[in-house]
Amino acid sequence: MNPPSRQDYVSISFAGQGSGVYNNSKQWRRQSCWRKWKQLSRLQRSLILFILVLLFICGIASYPSITEHLSGLTEEEQNTESNIDLRPIIPHVLPEPVNQARPPLPEQTSQRKLPNKRGPPFLQNRLQKKENVSNTVVEDKAADKKKEGEEEGVINWRGAVIDTDQATEGVKDEENNEDSLPNQKAKPSKESAINWLEAVREAFRHAWKGYKDFAWGHDELRPLSKSYSEWFGLGLTLIDALDTMWIMGLKEEFEEAKAWVATELTFNKNVDVNLFESTIRILGGLLSTYHLTGDTLFLDKAKDIGSRLMPAFNTPSKIPYSDVNIGKGTAHPPRWTSDSTVAEVTSIQLEFRELARLTQEPQYQVAVAEVMKQVHKLDGKLDGLVPMFINTNNGQFTHQGIYTLGARADSYYEYLLKQWIQGGKKENQLLEDYLQAIEGVKKNLLQKSSPNGLTFVGELSHGQFSPKMDHLVCFLPGTLALGAHNGLPADHMDLAKQLMETCYQMYVQMETGLSPEIVHFNMHQGSTRDIDVKLADRHNLLRPETVESLFYLYRFTKEHKYQEWGYEILQNFNKYTKVSSGGYTSINNVRDPDYPSPRDKMESFFLGETLKYLYLLFSDDSNLISLDQYVFNTEAHPLPIWPSTA
Ligand code: DMJ
Q: Closest Cα to atom 2, ligand 1: which residue?
């Protein structure tokens, strides 16, 4: 059988009526339709009309649900439905599950792709820039797929989200826009200040959830691999976080942590610990928790670890070794040297002095005071600035000629001032050393960047100035402000404000709005931007120093911009370092908002310091850890300023 001709087929589909010559004119088609309609029986016409009316009514009725369905889909789902393009399922943020009970937070502005080539003609802050922000991050991601896995040996960002619960949550979080900055406000309203406090508590809960679920009782959470790492095997994060929970009023979390301290924490372990790190985090954390709670459990534990650390001071010079075996009672320097780090041996004093006061056992204070006495007298300083290493055999500085306010020297300066404050401002030698050092900073390390004249603290190496500044140096604005609050020269406060702006710019100028570990400032005329970052320095470890200083600056000046800057930083931690299944992670690249490349590690100081200082920054209650009653150790554990009768 032959197939029907095309003409036959058409005539059938047009109700099978033969129509003579094919004419494609509109008029012919109108006439033809009308003629055909007239040829139908009344029943046929009624039936067709009925069907048309029915279809029309159904169409009207179903319209809202269709639109609702479409608007209920995430941007990504809608794109999938319409097959628009291929994108990573999850944004760079690893968001948390949506908590329905959470109070509403201010509306979130969209994240933009910041220019690599920003080259600011003048400095603005993020608030001022927000209106000009483009919303291209999601769109840009697909194009940037090549970056995936570019850093060898690192779990890449998308690797981090190959996980169904994260995928679902990511979509929700984008929609809910939970952590947000109110529009362009010079002063946060009371309501937003409360929301900001709640936002930090929420961040803490999220960090704690990760720790609890995957690292409970261990030192540090590895949030991407949902596991943990051990450093000393002493529950470092848990102990570091105790007083933060107390300050934030997270009672339930505090009680479960306290139960662990009571039943599980033991220092009778054959393990090498670093004297400085375990003093500032464990001894400091336990002492401050004891003071805040009055619970002797924490004092007993503090005495235990304090006494176990004492063998570190058994050296020929009385300058302590870096490492102690707290089970065996032996101590030693690192394998490759007999040197200790200057910052480490001079930043354990607040804790041991307090332990001596509480226990009435002077040996703790004697040991750490001896270190200060020796360092005070040593040759090799430059206008009060100290080298980075000290030898445990002969007690002399080594590797002389390099001066920095960053790693290995930083908290020496901080503890000069803070010991003086802790002891009731009587120990003049500490004050003199501090004042001299600040003058030394001004004379040798302080410079301005080009083109915008940011004040920064560089480094000196054998007479050669380097415009390099560690993020660690950002403790300095806060320390300077604390000194000024305690009666030291007013120009310390001026300098504090200038350096605070610089530290903030170290965040603002980065594409993620998070500071790198180290920056280099441009000083030559004709520079187009103030800050450069070397490839190896692009990581962010969730460090606290900038928000720490913001806290001091806000406490003393009540200028709301400092709170706003802190809130921006918190938002960016949430955007780029938050892991949906719990916890936050250090990242490798603050310059790539699409692939910040997570490191899979949440440092204990994120809970101990960063979130605590953010919380205190957003609180307008100056009595919440009054700076006239407490002095914070270098790990943000508040210790009491001694009463004048002591
Ligand atoms: C903390 O352990 C302390 O603040 C220390 O003084 C410096 N390093 C980290 C935080 O960055």
A: 635
Active site residues: 277, 410, 517, 545
Give the distance (Å) from ligand 1 centre to CA of residue 270. 25
Question: Where is average pLDDT lowest: 38-47, 73-82, 213-222?
Answer: 73-82
> Is ligand 1 within 6 A of the CB of residue 635?
yes
Enumerate residues 6+ apart whose C-beta is below 8 A from 543: 471, 472, 515, 517, 603, 605, 610
Give me ligand 1 centre to Cα 451, in Å.
Answer: 31
pLDDT grade for 89, boundaries at 50, 70 and 90: very low
pLDDT digits (tens, 9 = 90+) for 99-112: 323 332 222 333 33
Model confidence pLDDT, tens digit, residues 294-326: 999 999 999 999 999 999 999 999 999 999 999
Residue 543: CB within 6 Å of ligand 1? yes
Among the residue ranges 80-89, 126-135, 634-643, the one predicted with the least confidence is 80-89
Strands lying side by side in the sheet with 531-532: 468-470, 518-521, 531-532
Is 285 touching ligand 1 by the criterion CB < 6 Å? no
Backbone angles phi, psi at 564, to 5 degrees: -65, -40
Centre of ligand 1 to C-alpha 553, Å, is 19
With tokens 């970052």, the residue in question is 533
CA of 101 to the centre of ligand 1 (A): 34
Torsion over CA: 197, 198, 200, 204 (sign): positive
What's the rounded Cα separation, in Å, for the pair 93 and 628? 39
Write down the pLDDT at residue 58: 54
Q: Which two tokens stand for residue 6?
A: 């095309």
DSSP 525-556: TT-S-SEE--GGG--B----HHHHHHHHHHHH
| 80, 293, 316, 555, 625 from 617: Cα distances, Å | 43, 22, 44, 7, 11
For all residues of the chain together, what is the average pLDDT?
A: 80
575 closest CA partner among 602, 596, 557, 549: 596
Site to probe by mutation for ligand 1, drawn from 236, 547, 635 as the one with most ligand atoms within 8 Å of Cβ, is 635
19, pLDDT greater than 60: no
CA-CA-CA-CA torsion for 396, 397, 400, 406, nearest 10 degrees? Answer: 180
Distances (CA, A) of 500 to 185, 254, 318, 343, 638: 20, 33, 37, 22, 22
- Spatial distance between the Cα atoms of 300 and 278, rounded to a whole number of angstroms: 16
Angle between helices 236-248 and 190-214 (to 10 degrees): 150
State whether the beta carbon of 634 lies less than 6 angstroms from ligand 1: yes
pLDDT, tens digit, for every residue of 364-394?
999 999 999 999 999 999 999 999 999 999 9
Digit-coded pLDDT (tens) for 43-75? 777 777 777 777 767 555 544 433 333 333 323
pLDDT per residue over 130-151, tens digit each?
333 332 222 233 233 333 333 3
In angstroms, what is the span from residue 75 Cα to ligand 1's centroid?
41
Please give the number of the atom of ligand 1 that sits closest to the Cα of 548: 4
Cα separation values, 414 from 136, 349, 445, 470, 627, Å: 42, 11, 17, 15, 15
Measured by CA distance, the residue closest to atom 11 of ligand 1 is 543
